[in-house]
Write a structure and sequence with these properties.
The chain has 3 helices and 15 strands. The longest helix has 9 residues. β7 and β8 form a beta hairpin. It has a 15-stranded antiparallel sheet that branches. By secondary structure, it is mainly beta.
């Protein structure tokens, strides 16, 4: 069960494929046009073993403006937890934080503080993007230019201009997670309507490549729908896992930067 809530919190966690340095450089210094300070997003995590969908937990994301070393940063926090009715099976209290430079969308600090059952993990990472170094709780590591962390990756991806791609194109970038560098991509699949617990939307559909050998079956089996407006909000995530499947739906949002005009109708 713990892996279900990791998915709900990170949305596109545990992705990997080899790409080229040139492709990565194409997206260095991307500008933020999708979110602002004060934004709040809530997601519900559902789990299915083949019979019914179970409301298993919730993930919340908040964005605030702060200053680090004289530079404006976005302090983004992601909290994930199991519903109390399921805590007798497995209790999860996960918290992820990232601090992203406002002018180039690159992380300067990342904190992971997770408590899952009887396991607790804490990792504090600071990035020196100019020197190509990441300093974590466990040591110092070489990282490529413009590397992301697992939480900044979500907000980075929200600022990609998907209109410049055609269905089937790959969009690569790199991520530092658990003291390792992953070269990864998402595949742009096109545009379509999607109906979620929140409503019906015009959406952008993407598929990240999943690591074979984790809880996933591998391949591009995870489907992600993002609002086809300037907010680029994650609306739904579907993915089979080794036992059953998961679904993550956006269920509430507040203080968006742009009008939520991708919504066709709301669910009452």
């Amino acid at each position: 069960m713990n892996s279900v809530f990791k998915i709900g919190l990170s949305l596109i966690l545990l992705l990997t494929v080899h790409t080229t340095a040139t492709a990565q450089a194409d997206f260095c210094g991307i500008k933020n046009n999708s979110f602002k300070e004060g934004e709040k997003l809530t997601f519900t995590v559902f789990y299915n073993m083949g019979f019914i969908w179970i409301n298993a937990g919730e993930a919340n994301f908040t964005t605030e403006a702060e200053t680090i070393n004289g530079k404006k940063v976005f302090h983004i926090t992601g909290d994930g937890k199991t519903n109390k009715s399921h805590e007798w099976i497995f209790k999860v209290r996960d918290k992820y934080e990232t601090y992203i430079e406002a002018d180039n969308m690159l992380p300067v600090k990342f904190i992971r503080d997770v408590h899952e059952g009887n396991i607790s993990i804490y990792n504090h990472v600071t990035f020196d993007q100019n020197a190509g170094k990441a300093y974590s709780t466990k040591g110092s590591y070489n990282v490529p230019h413009c590397v992301q962390d697992v939480l900044s990756t979500i907000y980075y991806a929200r600022n990609i201009n998907y209109n410049q791609y055609k269905p089937g194109d790959r969009i690569p970038f790199t991520m530092f997670l658990d003291d390792q560098v992953y070269s990864l991509y998402i595949r742009y699949l096109g545009k379509e309507q999607v109906t979620t617990k929140y409503g019906t939307f015009n959406a952008i559909k993407i598929a990240p490549l999943l690591i074979k050998g984790t809880i996933f079956k591998g391949g591009e089996k995870m489907e992600v729908w993002v609002s086809d407006d300037e907010n680029h909000l994650p609306l739904r995530v579907n993915s089979p896992i080794l036992v059953g499947s998961i679904k993550v739906d956006l269920t509430a949002c507040d203080n968006l930067r742009h009008p939520f005009n991708s919504m066709i109708s709301s669910e009452e």
